[in-house]
Write a structure and sequence with these properties.
This protein has 340 residues and is an alpha+beta fold. The chain has 9 helices and 5 strands. The protein folds into 3 domains: 18-122; 128-212; 215-337, Heat Shock Protein 90 (2-Layer Sandwich), CATH 3.30.565. Strands 1-2-3-5-4 form a 5-stranded mixed beta sheet, covered by helices on one side. The radius of gyration is 36 Å and the shape is elongated. The relative contact order is 0.07. One of its GO terms (cellular component) is membrane. InterPro entries: HATPase_C_sf, HATPase_dom, His_kinase_dom, Put_sensor_dom, Sensor_HK_TwoCompSys, Sig_transdc_His_kin_sub3_dim/P. It catalyses: ATP + protein L-histidine = ADP + protein N-phospho-L-histidine.
Length: 340
């Protein structure tokens, strides 16, 4: 069940020995439920099973009453003799009442049968707190892993891109300094190449900075940042944002990166012709939805960045729901706490 719902915490191990186990309140409640379900629950089950049988027996009595001894009476609770068709029809009409009971009473009987279980098998008051602690522990670990991955990505970007550009600038400046004394005409060309390398290094640094926290969020807010993402998307994308006020910076950054990754997936994997991004604020929750008309079949286990999206969302105590049947469309629904 944990595959489709929240994590289920295993019960604590039982104490050794019968008497210590019986002193455990959980064991006593479970034993009480077994006794209650075996007696009261059994009776309720027999009643529920008998009602449709009585309904069929009474309703069909006018068909087969002639083959019975009239002195034996009718079916079930009918003890008086049935000698005429009118009497058999009256008995058959009572079957309508049995049918009504067979249709109306099962939900009531089910609630009666489930009531002892709700009372005796209910979780201890601290179970919800334990589950919450376990969930927070898991999301904290995932957040730390995501943070480590992000640091490695930044390190690789700086090492493979910006650092190499700056090394090239240093080499070119050294060559230009030597050329000033030997061949002044060549020095100008070398300085121009050094300037180009410096500009490329600055551009790569801006890319790294935008990957950490996009400045457009502070300048234009979430709506403007998402509109900018949609404008640079290779697939036609519409953005509908109605978020009064501002959310916490971390939440807006999470929403921004989730949309950015979702648009990247739509372009690379879904084959979509159109994408729609919708953002709403309901109370203290930020609701984000990304829909595309692609081929569907998105699966977190096959990569495509969906696992990273989920970890990023859960690190903010949010929830992700992905609906992507084969053949499409795909809908990614995200719920985040506004934090403000």
């Amino acid at each position: 069940m944990s595959r489709w719902g929240p994590e289920i915490i295993d019960p604590e191990p039982l104490p050794d020995g019968v008497l210590p186990a019986l002193r455990d309140s959980t064991v006593r409640r479970e034993a009480g439920w077994v006794v209650t379900h075996a007696t009261f629950g059994f009776v309720i089950g027999i009643v529920g099973f008998s009602l449709p049988l009585y309904a069929v027996q009474y309703l069909t009595f006018p068909v087969w009453w002639r083959w019975l001894d009239a002195e034996q009476g009718g079916p079930g609770f009918i003890s008086f003799p049935v000698r005429t068709e009118l009497g058999a029809l009256v008995v058959g009409l009572t079957g309508i009442g049995w049918a009504a009971l067979a249709l109306g009473l099962p939900p009531v009987l089910a609630r009666l049968q489930a009531a002892p279980g709700r009372g005796l098998l209910a979780a201890d008051p601290d179970t919800d707190l334990s589950l919450r602690v376990a969930q927070l522990t898991a999301t904290r670990a995932a957040a730390l892993d995501a943070h480590a991955v992000e640091l490695r990505r930044i390190e690789r970007s700086l090492h493979d891109g910006t650092q190499n550009r700056l090394v090239a600038v240093n080499v070119l400046l050294g060559a230009a300094r030597r050329a000033l004394t030997r061949d002044p005409d060549t020095a100008g060309e070398i300085l121009e190449r050094a300037q180009d390398a410096a500009e490329q290094a600055l551009a790569e640094l801006r890319t790294v900075v935008r990957g950490i926290l996009p400045p457009v969020l502070a300048d234009r807010g979430l709506s403007g940042a998402l509109t900018g993402l949609a404008g640079s998307c290779a697939v036609p994308c519409t953005v509908d944002v109605e978020v009064p006020g501002r959310c916490a910076v971390s939440v807006e950054a999470t929403a921004y990166f989730v949309v950015a990754e979702a648009l990247t997936n739509a372009v690379r994997h879904s084959g979509a012709a159109a994408v729609a991004v919708t953002v709403r604020r309901e109370g203290d929750r930020l609701l984000l939805r990304v829909d595309d008309d692609g081929r569907g079949g998105a699966d977190e286990s096959r990569g495509s960045g969906l696992g990273g999206i989920r970890r990023r969302i859960e690190a903010c105590d949010g929830r992700l729901t992905l609906i992507s049947p084969p053949g499409g469309p795909t809908s990614m629904q995200v719920e985040l706490p506004c934090g403000s």
